[in-house]
Amino acid sequence: MFARNSEETTASRDLNFVKHWVNIYPRLRTYVIALLQDVNDAEDILQEVSLEAIKSYSSFDPSRCFQKWLFGIARNRVRRYYRSKKQNSNLIFDTDTMLLLEAGVEHSQDQLEAQRQALRTCIRRLSQHSRYLLSLRYTQNRSAESIAADYSCNANTVYQRLTRIRAKLRACAHRYFEQQGA
């Protein structure tokens, strides 16, 4: 029985790690690329960060912020990278600069998530036909010509309809942010 509980606990921790990692990875990637200015080097560092995070996750304190913990690992890996490359010292960011970059990445990701939430809310408020038209165009990647053929109209009509829908979404998002106080 103890072994099963231990396995369940390990599986639960692994699942929590994956959930957190997937949520934070885009921010972490943006941060590391900003520090290194080279996507290939950043991808290498991100692999190292993921390995180190996986290895040390069992000692991670769940009361701490997972993102700050990961960014700390990344910050240390980037420092180590610059030391190993013996880069010019003016290319190495000091801790304060790295923390400012972290805050900037976090803020921009928060803004992006707020915009996505506004868009989801506004799309739900559209008519079913408008949502379907958006789905055809943007989810199914259908051309205006292809959609027009389905509706026996010309592509210009589809373009005009999509333009009106996008204008409604913009206005709705603007109102959404006004109501949110953003």
UniProtKB/TrEMBL annotation:
Gene Ontology molecular function: any one: DNA binding
Residue spans crossing the bilayer: none
Keyword terms, alphabetized: Sigma factor, Transcription, Transcription regulation
One of the GO biological process terms: DNA-templated transcription initiation
Gene3D superfamilies named in the record: 1.10.1740.10, Winged helix-like DNA-binding domain superfamily/Winged helix DNA-binding domain
Xref: SUPFAM superfamilies: Sigma2 domain of RNA polymerase sigma factors, Sigma3 and sigma4 domains of RNA polymerase sigma factors
InterPro entries, A to Z: RNA_pol_sigma-70-like (IPR039425), RNA_pol_sigma-70_dom (IPR014284), RNA_pol_sigma70_ECF_RHOBA (IPR014331), RNA_pol_sigma70_r2 (IPR007627), RNA_pol_sigma70_r4_t2 (IPR013249), RNA_pol_sigma_r2 (IPR013325), RNA_pol_sigma_r3/r4-like (IPR013324), WH-like_DNA-bd_sf (IPR036388)
RNA polymerase sigma factor 70 region 4 type domain: residues covered: 116-169
Stretches assigned to the RNA polymerase sigma-70 region domain: 25-86
Family: Belongs to the sigma-70 factor family. ECF subfamily.
Protein name in UniProt: RNA polymerase sigma factor CnrH
Species name: Aeoliella mucimassa
Name of encoding gene: cnrH_3
